[in-house]
Amino acid sequence: MSDTDKPLKKVCIICAKGTIEDVYATLVMANGAVMEGIEAKVFFTFFGLDAITKKQMKKLHTATVGNPAMRMPGGLAFPTFLGMIPGVEAGVSAMMRSQMDKLDIPPVDEFLEMITAGGGEIYACKLAMDMFKLDKSDLHEEVSAILTVGEFYAMCGGEGTQIIFT
Amino acid sequence: MADKVIAGKTVQVNDEGYLLDASQWDKEIAVEIAKEIGIELTDKHFEVLAFLREKKEAGEPLTIRKVGKSGIVDIKEFYALFPGGPLKYSSKIAGIPKPVSCV
């Protein structure tokens, strides 16, 4: 039996970064899984917690400094010093969000709701929560629970399961 | 591409079983394709199918989000109607191409 004969049944996705692109990679993959009938469990840790923290989730940014793939509209190089000017990162990030909206990619809170509507589950990392002094009330309603890494791993068993670190 | 007899009618389908010509579709064909997937169609299903066909006709790309904002079903209900693959199964039953969207 080849590997393609054994369909993927479950994905466990870990998101540890809080930039727009890291968070959306996680959300698109999780939502794409439930759309295909694949079980999805998503674990947000460290800066990834911004994606499920009510206060931060609508304000995610993409880095305009230290991001060599950052280009001007039209493809010209984006000078690093430009990225340092106050407001530039916010502007670039707002532009990215509006581009995504045109492709019917929802804002983070709505995306979380889409994933859980399809049966996906969202979790927060206990260690990172403690570190950032957050509690359950700081998190979006779609977050099911705060887990230790061991508890998360316990959910990641079974044939046809993959753990993905975005 | 192949000919397939569905509900007594000969239609063209691709290798995944999606109808190639949406105009060959009718309700009996929908019931038959749904049965193959394991779904019993209700009036609510047909409302969603009509919405999808309408959007397809208008050339609008289909996403789960769009169906969720249709006013017919929310996303949770959409999953409940077409378990295991709401957008791909509903499109197949609606006789329209498999959506190419990632959301």
Provide keyphrases for this structure:
heterodimer, A: 166 residues, alpha/beta, Hypothetical Protein Ychn, Chain: A, five-stranded parallel β-sheet, 6 helices, globular, B: 103 residues, mainly alpha, two-stranded antiparallel sheet, 10% strand
Describe the structure.
The complex is a heterodimer of chains A (166) and B (103). Chain A has 166 residues and is an alpha/beta fold. Chain A has one domain (10-63, 79-165): DsrEFH-like (Hypothetical Protein Ychn, Chain: A, 3-Layer(aba) Sandwich), CATH 3.40.1260.10. Chain A is built from 6 helices and 5 strands; from the N terminus they run E-H-E-H-H-H-E-H-E-H-E. Chain A has a 5-stranded parallel β-sheet. In chain A, helix 1 (20-35) packs parallel to helix 4 (108-117). Chain A is globular and about 50 Å long. Chain B is mainly α and 103 residues long. Chain B has one domain. Chain B is built from 5 helices and 2 strands. Chain B has a two-stranded antiparallel ribbon with strand order 1-2. In chain B, a hairpin with a 2-residue loop joins strand 1 (2-6) and strand 2. Chain B starts with a strand and ends in a 10-residue tail after the last helix. At the A-B interface, helix 1 and helix 4 of A face helix 3, helix 4 and helix 5 of B.
